[in-house]
Amino acid sequence: MNFDDVLKAQEEKLCVVIPAYRVAGHIEAVINGIPDWIWKIIVVDDKSPDDLADRVLALSNPRVELIRHEQNKGVGGATMTGFDRAVELGATVLIKMDGDGQMDPAFLPELLEPIVNGQADFVKGNRFGRLESISRMPFHRRMGNLFWSFLTKVGSGYWNVFDPNNGYLAVDADVYRRLDKKYLHPRYFFETSLLVELNITRAVAEEVPMPAIYAGEPSSLSVFKVITTFPGLLLSRYFRRIWLQYFVLNFSVGTIFMTLGTIMSLFGIIWGAVWWRTSIITGIPATAGTVMVASLPLILGFQMLIQALTLDVQSVPTFPVSSRTGRRQGIARNLQVK
After folding, report:
1. Does 231 reside within a domain?
2. What is the per-residue DSSP string for 223-256?
3. What is the residue range of 135's domain?
4. Residue 193 lies in a domain
5. Is there a domain that residue 323 lies in?
6. Overall number of domains in the chain
7. For position 95, which CATH number holds?
8. pLDDT in tens, the chain (338 residues)
9. Interatomic CA distance for residues 82 and 80, integer angstroms
């Protein structure tokens, strides 16, 4: 099935949003490399101190709209500004590409196909999907992404997503409208916070393998800042997701396992710690019964939490929630028959 035929039949309005900061040397090549079938390109100048805005305006590209921030809002804030404008203009699919030239526009059809065929609401690139891509990735980025990937799986609930930090992504405009924007982080935590909010809306997320392009450009993201701020941000989003999905929007067996498992585990830990301290102070060993009162709830509670985790893995969204899903799937089936 030809991708161009799908786009024409679906009457999609595809909009690329480029959050731009200190990328004046790359921005022209990035814009010129975007295919003609992209409906609109929105460049958000996040108060960049270079001549980025002048270079964008000099292109005189009718598809390009430049938005300038009066103050720097971060990559997430700039992306949301662009997404909101694209929705206002009538875009049906929103695409985020960075302005540093690391994201190859040749992979746009692969990124967009699951959405325009009605198979997904959100698609992102996966730099770990191909062995040759992994070997080209700097070692420190590889290790950091692997570690953060597992934590993000737990926090977001998307256990099928392996490269959460990849900013090359596309999201259905209808699904984006449903997100609670105040919980989307304005800076580098944006991609991870977006995953959490998408899961709360039960949007279907997919990944497509694609390489990143590394040209030795320095990253403006501080490793120290990641270590000191990202875990706390992820933990708060995790508790928000669990509360909404298991106690507010739904109540399931997973809720019971999670609640009882937490209570029993905490009881076993606290009871055991109290009697362990008492034994040290008095010099009298705890009785077998006292040890059992601590260990049995802890073992059972841990097993319940493992079961709750298993149910969470199995509850990854599988049916797209976009209002355009039915139409997209119907047209895709008709094109396959032809």
Report:
1. yes
2. HHHHHHHHHHHHHHHHHHHHHIIIIIS---HHHH
3. 3-240
4. yes
5. no
6. 1
7. 3.90.550.10
8. 567 767 777 789 999 999 999 999 999 999 999 999 999 999 999 999 999 999 999 999 999 999 999 999 999 999 999 999 999 999 999 999 999 988 999 999 999 999 999 999 999 998 876 666 666 666 666 676 778 888 999 999 999 998 887 899 999 999 999 999 999 999 989 999 999 999 999 999 999 988 766 555 555 555 566 677 888 999 999 999 999 999 999 999 999 999 999 999 999 999 999 999 999 999 888 899 999 999 999 999 999 999 999 999 999 999 999 999 999 999 888 877 66
9. 5
